[in-house]
Amino acid sequence: MAMVVKLLQPVESDLETLLSDLRNLIGADHPILQAAAEHLFSAGGKRIRPGIVLLLSRALSPTGDLSPRHRRLAEITEMIHTASLVHDDVVDEAATRRGVATVHSRFNHRVAVLAGDFLFAQASWHLANLDNLEVVKLLSRVIMDLADGEVKQGLFRYNTRQSFETYIEKSYCKTASLIANSARAAGVLADLNEEHLVQLYRFGRQLGLAFQVVDDILDFTGSDQQLGKPAASDLVSGYLTAPVLYALEEKPMLADLIEGKFNQGIDLEQALELVRNSEAINRSRTLAEGFAREAHKSIQWLPSSEACNALLALPDFVISRLS
């Protein structure tokens, strides 16, 4: 966490402004929804996604200043991300996130679904008011991808015959699409050429995929406290990630345990041992490192600045979570 704070230091005051602006944007028309939103925005997340948008916006600005439209883009990014977390928590029936009660456990499922919808609607409204059709298309695509990723994840639960491509696609939809498309949107608002827009999108895509693969490794190697949720919770839920898919290639008997949904008391422990005693964790790490290298390479053309240095350090930070 300290490392994240350090990396986001160039936009620390921007992020504080963003949080107070978000509270104002939500408005007081719906007391219960506002209470839910207040709870979400004060839940102490790392704010990496809006932080990336703000860092990119400062790195792309000739004066280093933020335009109001770039600030609003960062706010929309955080709204979309928060809305998706509310819905994810309902689907996963998670009682806490990062040690804080989830919206549906603090209020109820109905309020949580409505609060998520409310935030998506608010994001769409503020997005339309940016008056930039390309940015509207980019961020609308993210909202579609988030829903698509959640559906894909549900459809492939406990399915040991899914392809690695399915896993990458799902990871892109759930994690990388928001970072990739909001990075490109920051470039669009800065009037960049197509070549640089493609590089910004690639930066966000590869960084998001590295982030997801690292999260998936930590599901097997991290502590409950480090994860903000019980370890191995993805596997228990039947979500097959890179370490499991790699382990299945080496340990075919793992498939029986997964397809049986760990119905015997020792099945889960056995499955964890099979994953940990294979090359799966090492192979997953190599995969994440490859994505991180590609992300770093994609933005080396940015002019030197404090914000640029922070962005270039992000891929290494993502991998450092494994040490």
Automatic annotation (TrEMBL):
GO MF assignments: metal ion binding; prenyltransferase activity
Gene3D superfamilies cross-referenced by the UniProt entry: Farnesyl Diphosphate Synthase
Residue stretches spanning the membrane: none
Cofactor: Mg(2+)
Keyword field contains Plastid: yes
Keyword annotations: Isoprene biosynthesis, Magnesium, Metal-binding, Plastid, Transferase
Record InterPro entries: Isoprenoid_synthase_dom_sf (IPR008949), Polyprenyl_synt (IPR000092), Polyprenyl_synt_CS (IPR033749)
One Gene Ontology term from the biological process aspect of the record: quinone biosynthetic process
NCBIfam families: prenyl_cyano
Family, as annotated: Belongs to the FPP/GGPP synthase family.
Listed name of the protein: Polyprenyl synthetase; solanesyl diphosphate synthase (Sds)
Native species: Paulinella chromatophora
Name of the encoding gene: preA
